[in-house]
Amino acid sequence: MPRLTSVPARVAGQASRLGVADRSEAERHRQRDQMQPWRGWYKTARWQKLRRKVIKRDGCICQETGVLLVGVHPAPDSPVVDHIRPHRGNAKLFWDERNLQTVSKAYHDREKQSLEARGLS
């Protein structure tokens, strides 16, 4: 039985019309950190300790949807500690445990961001 051979393409591939990003993702994050120094608070041991405390307090359950949060970042069912009232750099609001709740990554990245963008949170 004869072997099948591949047929060369008759149409050349189209070159991408999208330009290459000017900055890498890491550079974009660095620039955001410089513009908003409070973003560094998320990288502290104090925040990690508070985050674990809130997740434990809420029983690893999304306080908005009731979903059990068993995933590991970046899974949609991974826990995210969310500021109920956006802190916008206000240290008192940022560190206030009563202003924190555990939500799923899916909820935080979709519904919560949408609410904040519309000024409803």
UniProtKB/TrEMBL annotation:
<keyword id="KW-0255">Endonuclease</keyword>
<feature type="domain" description="HNH nuclease">
    <location>
        <begin position="49"/>
        <end position="109"/>
    </location>
</feature>
<protein>
    <submittedName>
        <fullName>HNH endonuclease</fullName>
    </submittedName>
</protein>
<dbReference type="InterPro" id="IPR003615">
    <property type="entry name" value="HNH_nuc"/>
</dbReference>
<dbReference type="GO" id="GO:0004519">
    <property type="term" value="F:endonuclease activity"/>
</dbReference>
<feature type="region of interest" description="Disordered">
    <location>
        <begin position="1"/>
        <end position="35"/>
    </location>
</feature>
<keyword id="KW-0540">Nuclease</keyword>
<feature type="compositionally biased region" description="Basic and acidic residues">
    <location>
        <begin position="20"/>
        <end position="33"/>
    </location>
</feature>
<keyword id="KW-0378">Hydrolase</keyword>
